[in-house]
Each structure stands twice: as structure tokens, then as C-alpha cells.
Amino acid sequence: MLEKVKGFSADQVIEEFEALTKDAERVQRETLYRILHDNGEAEYLQNLGLRGRTDPHSFKSCVPLVTHKELETYIHRIADGDAYPILTGKPITSISLSSGTTQGKPKFVPFNDELVHSTMQIYKTSFAFRNRAYPLRNGKALQFIYGSKQFKTKGGLTATTATTNVYRSEEFKRTMMDIHSLCCSPDEVIFSPDFHQSLYCHLLCGLIFSEEVQIVFSTFAHSIVHAFRTFENVWEELCFDIKEGVLSSRITIPTIRAAVSRLLRPNPQLADAIYNKCVGLSSWYGVIPALWPNAKYVYGIMTGSMEPYLNKLRHYAGSLPLMSADYGSSEGWIGANIDPELPPESASFTVLPNIGYFEFIPLKEKGDLLEQNSDLLSNQREQEPIGLTEVKVDEEYEIIITSFAGLYRYKLEDVVRVAGFHNSTPKLQFIRRKSLILTINIDKNTEKDLQLAVEEADKLLAAEKLEVLDYTSHVDMSTDPGHYVIFLELSGEAREDVLNSCCDCLDLAFVDAGYVGSRKVRAISPLELRVLKRGTFHKIMDHYLTLGAAMSQYKTPRCVGLSNGKVLQILNSNVLKSFFSAAYN
Ligand code: AMP
Predict the structure, then answer these.
(1) 3-state class of 115 per DSSP?
(2) How far apart are CA 512 and CA 531, in angstroms?
(3) Which residues line ligand 1 (CB under 6 A)?
(4) pLDDT digits (tens, 9 = 90+) for 530-542
(5) What does the pLDDT read at residue 6?
(6) With 70 as the cut, is the pLDDT of residue 372 above it?
(7) For residue 40, what are the CA distances in angstroms to 70, 114, 193, 394, 491?
(8) What pLDDT, on the 0 to 100 scale, is given for residue 551?
(9) Where is the GH3 C-terminal domain (predicted)?
(10) Per-residue pLDDT tens for 452-482?
(11) Cα–Cα dist 207/186, whole Å
């Protein structure tokens, strides 16, 4: 029997959260004071002439808005071992590598213990609200989490992904214990150098502890979908391991073998129960509640670029609720999801006003917003950023963060919409990454526009009992004029006429006036659909993992440019068929 939860006071966490959010403006001022006071010695702030001032007005007039590019040399000096206080007063303890799937290579971001504390604050806050709605008892979590490769920088700092930095911290383990989310798998599995072996063992450990599992989790929902797609192929082997009490020979890393073998005993009864449940499922619908009968919900980031995986996730989760996790980045956390009952499509993130200083650049309408893309119109003036408590409901903003880890007025390049307020702090909905991904001349399409277009094509495929497993895009300028290429990996073989219709449908689904106008006057050539072999997106993921990306932070790149030559080559060498749209003929 599962015991009732002890040692965690959700009420106290909620009380503290209420106090913080009631006077968000004051908390923001105090937070800025703390950041500037603690880091006043840093060369970066000294050079900007702040001279010890810590008020919002002086801060905004002295410190410029920056992107990662402007801070790169500072961060590299830190990584190279320059001992001078460069971005922070206290030394930076490690370097985080952001997922880097947008640019093709990971970015270096400073990391310190302050980020661990704010991560835990976010985890505890959203847990407290989840626990009110879905109370947990003592138990475990089937967590698909993965440490990534790490290396030492020239200056001797550990460089790895932010999630790995967090998973390694003592505070993480303590918090997971407090919130009854301790991972079923031993550390050797989480920090294995081989992602495929980790995944197999996560599934196995999850099955061994199936009665105790209350949450199925991964940082980004894609990892859960990937895990259950893999489960469909390896379930019989897992049953065999449990029946015999012997770990499959596919696990070759001695430390993982030893750690997992310690948990494994011959258990034919459990193996038979799993086997019978699996054969009784129809197309794996509801596999999660079938195998983990005490699971209360499935948890992970399901918004933004994770939305395309929601259908599949719902399929595996069956009757279990899906709960979208919090909003943050390698650079710092932003907000917690305190409305766990809302479906992921409506999830918002309530900003914690003490974990950073936040500013927002208003982006009024889509037209304005796109004109702010500095790559396109570098001489357009941006609107002045406004403070956390000044934002307006229903408006869209680009978010700027100032962190305890050496980032000052840093453009995260995410677009958010204000869904409402909790006390005096806003609730943000993630809209999309800011950058345009598809543009040839006056056309402007973002990753959200691409997602909507693919959803339209997916509807045609659904009528044929097929689905889009994953997708990406490319602007092909080798034709004159250039054209959009959409790569789709499908769950099965589609008829030519269906694919032709999908191709036309994709072309018509880009409704941006610049695109439609350009297509009509043939200033953009017909859209091309390239259908990929099964497994192509796994190859792309493996490519990123070998570069040091962490599965825990992996996001499929939604546009692949020429600068990302290796991924483009993987895509192009796996094309089964291609089609050109006749939509504007
Ligand atoms: P990383 O580069 O791995 O640190 O990823 C951070 C980025 O992931 C953010 O800037 C967002 O674009 C995205 N992200 C993080 N949390 C969420 C969320 N809850 N919903 C949507 N996108 C998110």
C-alpha cells in the first residue's frame, strides 16, 4: 500500500507564493536590487557605469538590451578561466549548454546555484497546486530524464546542459523526495553515456516499480512519446527480462548493468501481467494507466513546440490527465503552471517575481511583431520594454530577463501572451520562438504558422488512418524563385493522391498575405513536400545527442538552414518521394 505524504507543506508553499504575487512590483524592485547589489563588482556592470545604483530607472538607462551574441565573448572568457568578476560577483560554477536545436549548435550560458534554487522553487510551487487537485501519496515517478555529456572548458568549468546541472545537484534529489517524484531508475541510468540504453532501463525500472509509480514525467513531452514508441518495439524483451530476472544483453555499459541488475529479480507473475495487459490493448491506447495503475497524471512541457505531440501523448495516456509543466530556459526560469486542471492547450505560466527581473517588449499586432524581427528590418525601432506588472491582458510581448546568473536585459527571443493575472503578477501563455523561420521575400512565417499548416495536412492524413510523426522545413533557394520545403515523416505509407492533396493543403495553409501574394504572382515557387523514411527524425535526434545535446531538452528543429549542413544531408538522403504543390496553378 502507498503511504500518505509526509514532510511537504503544499499549504506553506502556496502561502509564500500568494505573498510574493500580491505585491509583484515591490518584489521585482527588491529582486533587481539583490541582483545588482550582489553583482555590482562585475566588469560588465562596472563598464556600463551603474556605479552601484540598483533602481529600475538607472538600470534601464545604463544597461542595453542584448541577445546571446553580445554576451558571447564575456561568457567565453568565463569558460576560459578568466578569474576577474566578469558577469557576476561570485564566480560562475558551471556552463550550461542550451539545446541549440534552433541554431544548430548549443549556446554557452552561465550557470550557478541560484538557478538550482529557482528551479526548485518553481518545481515546488507547481507541485503544491497539482497536489491540491491530484493529491499524491509516497511513491515514485517514472521519469524519462537523461543527463547529457559533459566536458571541461579550458578554464576547468564543467559544461553540460542546464537539466544535467540540475539533476546532479543535491537539492534536486531532496526536492524530488519532498514532492514524491523520486525517479524509479538509479543515477547510473540517468547519467548513462548511451541514451538508448538509458531509455530501455527507465522503462524496465518503471515496470519493476509499477505499483509505486504515481507520475509519468519528462522535461519535454516529446521524450514521453519517444519512450512509448520505443516501448511498442521492446515490450516483449522487457517482459522477458522481468520473467527471468536477467537484464537484456542490449545493456552493455557495466555500471548500468550492475545498478539495474540489483533491482531485478525473476518475477514471472509481474511479467505475465504486463504481457497480458499489452496484448489486450488496442493500438497501445491507454498503455500508461494499464501498466501503471496508480499513476495520477502525465507531466511535462506540452506547450509551444511540444503541441504537435499532444495527440499521440493523449493516445498513450488514455484516461489519465495530461499536465503541462512550467516555463523556463537554460538562461533561467520564468513561471509555474498553477492551474493543473486546464488542458495543455490552455496552460499558462504565472511569473514568480523573485526569481529574476522581467521586462516585456510590446508586440502589438502580428504585422508589427514581425517587423520587429531585427534580421529583416534592422532599422525599425523597437518599442520600449515595460515592467512585469505593466503588461496588459491579451497583448503579446517579447520577454527580457535579468537573472541571478549574469544575464542583464537578455532577450530570450520567446513571444508570450498575457492570459490574465494572478494577484498582481501576469500569467503568460507561450506563443512561439520570436524568429521567423520561413521567409523568402515579403513572406513571413513563424514556427507556429508551420505548426498550423502541418496540422491541416495531418487532418487529411487522419482520414486515411495515418499521422505525421514529426516534421521540419527548409527554404530552398536553389530554384528560381525559391520555395518552401516541408519534410514529413509519416506513420505509414500514403497513396500518391493523398500526398498530392497534402502538398496543396500545406501550400494553402500558409495564409500570411506576403506568402499568398508572392505565390499568386509566382515570386515564390510551388511548395514542395518531401516524405521521409521512417526513422529519419530518430537519426536527427541521434545526431544532436552525439553533439552533446541532452534528450531531456531536445526539440526537433522546425527549420533547417544551409548552415545546418549535416541535418540537411540526413533529411535529403532519407527522402522517399517528393511532391510539388499545384495549389496556385
Ligand atoms: P533550452 O534552449 O533547452 O534552454 O530551451 C528553452 C526554450 O524552450 C525556451 O526559450 C522556450 O522557447 C522553450 N520552452 C521552455 N519552456 C516552455 C514551455 N513551458 N512551453 C513552451 N516552450 C517552452
Answers:
(1) helix
(2) 24
(3) 98-99, 162, 301, 303-304, 327-330, 412, 414, 430, 433, 553
(4) 999 999 999 999 9
(5) 54
(6) no
(7) 20, 16, 40, 36, 55
(8) 82
(9) 448-560
(10) 999 999 999 999 999 999 999 999 999 999 9
(11) 14
